[in-house]
Amino acid sequence: RVLKKAIAKRGTSISDWRDLYGCPGENQNELQVYGREGTTCCVCKEVIVRIKQGGRSTFYCPRCQK
């Protein structure tokens, strides 16, 4: 369900990514924690955490995403 929705919205454009037609994706509007380190979760109000793995970042809510 999540993947189908992301594909329908042409992917997630975090910076300057564009598809073959020069259009950005629209799925980034669905992200609830990405890039929100230190702010509160919309669901439980826990502080969102960022961890780095192999040069990449992962953002998550330690209460909602166990």
Please characterize this protein's 3D structure.
The longest helix has 7 residues, at 2-8. The chain has 66 residues and is of the alpha+beta class. Strands 1-2 form a two-stranded antiparallel ribbon. Strand 1 (49-53) and strand 2 form a beta hairpin. It has 2 domains: 1-31, no CATH class; 32-66, no CATH class. 11% of the residues lie in helices and 15% in strands. The model has no long low-confidence stretch (mean pLDDT 85). It contains 1 helix and 2 strands; from the N terminus they run αββ.
Helix/strand structural class = alpha+beta
Low-confidence stretches: none
How much helicity do the residues have?
Answer: 10-25%
* Major sheet summary line: 2 strands, antiparallel
Strand order of the largest sheet: 1-2
Query: What is the number of E strands?
Result: 2
Task: Report the principal-axis shape.
Answer: globular
Number of domains: 2
Question: Measured on Cα atoms, how large is the radius of gyration?
Answer: 14 Å
Distinct helical segment count: 1
